[in-house]
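Notebook entry, structure prediction.
Reason for the run: the old model in the group folder had no record of what sequence produced it. Starting over properly, with the input documented here first.
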Amino acid sequence: MQFQNYYNILGVKNTASQTDIKKAYRKLALKYHPDKNEDKVKSKEKFIKIKEAYEVLKDTDKRQKFDNLIKQAKQTYNNTTTQQNYYKSDYTKYKEDLYRDVYARDETDSLFSSFFNYFFGRKKSRSSYSFLYNGKDIKGKITIDFEEAFTGSNRILNVVGEKLRVTIKPGVKNNHLLKLKNKGDYSELGTNRGDLIVRIKINPHSIYKRKLNDLYRDIFVNIYTVLLGGKVK
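New structure, fully documented this time:
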């Protein structure tokens, strides 16, 4: 089991903020993405290490566990060579052998290193890069008055720090889905955005009911008017 220094992999200090860690990750992931390099084998190996490092350092609990691991090694041994060998001590070696016995058949399919799997409990992962380039869709709801459904309306939404004007056309139906392309969340690399999907909800009217494009209302008619006919106000 080879020790992985996740700070060195991302090229950041152990005091780096989450913003700096994410920025370093995006830069390296974009640089070493297999689809962007001719040598896909080497770039994939590098890319996976970068992804593994980010998986640990972006998570508060995992990062704390990793920091404690380094701190424990430094307290026990004083030189760099011995720190590396700390993970090869008799007790750790025994646990490493046990790890191999349990996960040997999955080793070729494992995305991350045995170091990650051992210390952070990840047995098996599948390679997936789409989330790096494709942002997530954002779903929301706009509620309008009954009259606005016939006249049309506008709303200003704040999406990912950006103000967007949403135009609601006349004749919109209840539960209509309005899709705004590339107005959703940004991808991990800050490139493509997902879509903004807004559901239009129409408040009911106190008098009128809508069926397709027609309006209906209930009125009270006395028995004499029903039998003899007449006008109803």
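Summary: The longest strand covers residues 138-144.
The old model has been moved to the deprecated folder.
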